[in-house]
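Slide 14.
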Amino acid sequence: MKSLTNILRRSKLTPLERVTALVHNKVQKEKTGKALLSDAEIKSIASLWTPRGNDEIRQFNKYIALMDLETTMKMEIQMYYAESDNGLLRSHRMVDYMRNYTSLEEFIERDQAKEHIPDQEVINYILEHSYLEYEHLVHTMTFYSLDADIQDDFEILDPHIRIDTKYISQEVMLYELLSGNNTSDGNTKKKLVSLLWNAMYSEKSRRKRNGTEKDGILIHHGFASIPVRQILYRCADYLSITVDTDDPQHINMLLKELQAYADNKGTSLELVIKPLLGTWIDDGLFVSTYAPIYVSNQCDTYEGVTKRVHKELFDIWYEAFNKTKTYLDELIASGEMKKELLNHSIKGNISIITAKSLYTSTFTIPCIDNMKEQIPYLVPVVRTFLFIKKCAYPVKSYATMNAFVELSQEFSKVFDIDLSEKYVHYRDEFQMQILMMNMNLLMLFEILFEYIHNNDNWRHVIEIETQAFGFDYKKEVEPEDFIEKYKEEFDKNK
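Slide 15: predicted structure.
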């Protein structure tokens, strides 16, 4: 804004300049406790002047009305924030109370919001936002379709096969990639290298640790039967890096050396390791070393000895897997099960079967049965979330405070000074309360799911869309109705 001193030197001020001077004076006094204008100057600006006609009187009164409206609005957001903040604080106590529950049964017995949200409403919300992964369901249905003695063999081959799809699915990848080709084929080798690299490196892990590429290496993972550690040892061999495997820190030291090698070459760790993987493939990986199980005549495993050779087990699995997939796709086509695409926060886009369709399905296997049995234990926690959503309405409250901020910025343009500071403060403080509530709810769900995981009766756990059980303040919702009244008053007087 123009200097108040320069404006006051002028004999004639416009109505807007007069009210703007009063607004600046008020803002300065609120911030520092010291006014810019004396009482005499305020009186001169506000009342000791002669308007040049009715138009100036109308303009002055309109701008005074705007100034008073902004003052009222500031008091409104202060009261609204206090009420909304108090509602969330009371809700925090409900969540904190549940976090002290010591068993699944306690969640059922001490359901705080039972009187307020009907069971069916809660169950419907759970079913709308939970699922089983399509791949996991095909895998599980395949396993349980096998005879018991074959299941026993597979559990010797892979102790986690009932609940983990990774090992056998990677062996299927190798079969489908190599059964009609050989590792010397350029395209095949390129795909194999990508599979290995993707299994051993995670960019999200690197970002989470805020480190270099070495911090994205998944040292406890593997691809098919190849541990990532063995991949790193082979890279060390090719680069003539000495590794003391007796040193408990040798893997971390090796990663540092590999990263230093890449840095000295002015390249990335990926561009160092990928060619080495290609060299290993040329030297017999997947042929003489770590051969896929579809060509293995062995029965020995780390866990014991299977009754059938590994390639026979693979053939049994592959045939059963394709039959199961065809059958499940027929159920989806008939509408008995519903398949959707979900953007998972970690895995990216994944295919899912909705819990709603599984809940009403007559199909019976442990993973579906376990899901249905777990839903009643989710009800008290989800009911609490819905109660907070209904009674404290944090997202609507945030949208209302944000609307206050946007409107205050319009006032700022009129009076050429930032009037939004307090509005932004209240909105941002409430945003922090929402984030804290989301964190509190997430910890409550983690406690609940820990009890579910530890239940010996369940091998399979229902999946939930985590973001659906928190408050997304960025979601576009209508603010409180009184915001529109403030907008109308502003538009009438601006």
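Speaker note: The mean pLDDT is 92.
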